[in-house]
Write a structure and sequence with these properties.
With about 475 residues, the protein is an alpha/beta fold. About 40% of the residues lie in helices and about 15% in strands. The protein has a domain of about 230 residues: Amidase signature (AS) enzymes (Alpha-Beta Complex), CATH 3.90.1300. α5 packs parallel to α6.
């Protein structure tokens, strides 16, 4: 029996029935990582000793017939920009290569409280800036479906870890598609929650008004379990809110109104991707859902506005990495200015430097009104577009990516073509909405994900809608 392929519920049942121990389960995953991580490079670091120690404590509780927390013994992987006390947290950057986390992120604290076993930290685009996980200072992650291709980014390591059976679930962060794109490219389920639904305390900040932590898993039930574990207000994150607890709504497909934005099916989308997405939408129509073409008229400005707001916030957030307080510091500097400039020049990679420069320019005197302020106005228009659409429909279906997973090295030298990969995902972050990436088919052996966008705080609704696809 291959216990690395079990769902969270199957793991819980197996541990309760003593079909296997938490240590045996943990060891199986660690063995798989040892065997295949060199090829896939999903993990930047593995905490073998710590994971076994956590599993031993669970086994001890089981042997004493003590009551167990809800996720006791379930292994997981954490994106390496989310702090786990005592483990390195590099954000895949030379700047933080030797930084050890002094405390747990709130989401990690919640998982530990429920008995999760943390296997290690996964690879990402440096400081979560990228769509392919090629921007990591320590090397690219490969797509488990085809190692010559990218796994998507920036949470590529988290998605690849789940797809390669290195962990039943993982945590990622999503600033403009960084959970949904890797979930789509690797063929797993990924949820980007409503802005504020999950605490960001302990997440290395990139673009604070866009960042959101969320789960990646092999199936919707596991994704839902983890989301419901990590959600909720946190006094340590003033942007987090009390998640409105409603009774579980029974989603009746025949009452469901699904909006399909015409702006998302235009020139530039791979015909095979379009065909797969339209077949998935047709499946819902055959089940009785009412499909309606809608318009999100300001979509054409979303990417341009996003790539002003995103670098502007990054420029401000990454100012703290100056070679003084923590992180990489240039020793051969003649004066304070050289400490700053050389530390940042050597510590940050090319994409991070590019975004800091773009953001600093957009925020500079004389350009603030022309770029940043106008982008905020576009953001308001995008929110209005979604609000108007949701007066008519219950959920919005779109592709995740206009293209299939591309070859490693194919777009890395062309930042604009890389940014265009985010064209269907950034609007959701700009509007602060929840969205699900659902695997709905393959082109050859390459997965395609459907994006299900919901109203604020309706994560459980869109997850229930996603479940219907597999009925």
């Amino acid at each position: 029996m291959d216990i690395t392929g079990l769902t969270i519920n199957q793991i819980k049942k197996g541990l309760r029935n003593k079909d296997f121990s938490a240590v045996e389960l943990c060891q199986c995953f660690l063995d798989g990582i040892k065997k295949k991580n060199k090829e896939i490079f999903a993990f930047l670091s593995v905490d073998e000793q710590g994971a076994i120690l956590q599993a031993e404590k669970i086994d001890e509780s089981i042997s004493k017939n003590e009551s167990l927390p809800s996720l006791a013994g379930v292994p997981c992987a954490i994106k390496d920009n989310i702090l786990v006390e005592g483990l390195k947290c590099t954000a895949a950057s030379k700047m933080l290569e030797n930084y050890n986390a002094p405390y747990n992120a709130t989401v990690v604290g919640k998982l530990k409280k429920e008995g999760c076993v943390i296997l290690g930290k996964t690879n990402l685009d440096e400081f979560a800036m990228g769509s392919s996980t090629e921007n990591s200072a320590f090397g690219p992650t490969k797509n488990p479906n085809d190692p010559s291709r990218v796994p998507g980014g920036s949470s590529g390591g988290s998605a690849a870890a789940v797809a390669a059976d290195f962990a039943p679930f993982s945590l990622g962060s999503d600033t403009g598609g960084s959970i949904r794109l890797p979930a789509s490219f690797c063929g797993v389920v990924g949820l980007k929650p409503t802005y504020g639904a999950v605490s960001r305390y302990g997440l290395i900040a990139f673009a604070s008004s866009l960042d959101q932590i969320g789960p990646l898993a092999r199936n919707i039930e596991d994704c839902q379990t983890i989301f419901n574990t990590i959600k909720g207000k946190d006094p340590l994150d003033s942007t987090s809110v009390e998640f409105p607890e409603k009774g579980k709504e029974d989603i009746k497909i025949e009452n469901l109104r699904i909006g399909v934005p015409k702006e998302y099916f235009v020139e530039g989308i791979d015909p095979e991707v379009e065909k797969t997405i339209k077949e998935a939408i047709l499946k819902y129509e055959k089940m009785g859902a009412k499909i309606e073409e809608i318009s999100l008229p300001n979509t054409e400005y979303a990417l341009a506005a996003y790539y002003i707001i995103n670098p502007s916030e990054a420029s401000a957030n990454l100012a703290r990495f100056d070679g003084i307080k923590y992180g990489f510091s240039e020793k051969n500097a003649k004066n304070l200015f050289e400490v700053y400039s050389k530390s940042r020049g050597k510590g940050f990679g090319k994409e991070v430097r590019r975004r800091i420069m773009l953001g600093t320019f957009a925020l500079s005197s004389g350009y603030y009104d022309a770029y940043y302020l106008r982008s905020l106005k576009v953001r308001t228009l995008l929110k209005n577009d979604f609000e108007n659409a949701f007066k008519k429909v219950d959920a919005i279906f779109t592709p995740i990516s206009p293209v299939l997973p591309f070859k490693i090295g194919e777009k890395i030298e062309d930042p604009l073509s890389m940014y265009l990969v985010d064209i269907y995902t950034v609007s959701v972050n700009m509007a602060g909405l929840p969205a699900l990436s659902l695997p709905v088919g393959k082109v050859g052996n390459l997965p395609v994900g459907l994006q299900i966008i919901g109203k604020p705080f309706q994560e459980n609704n869109i997850l229930e809608i996603g479940k219907r696809f597999y009925e």
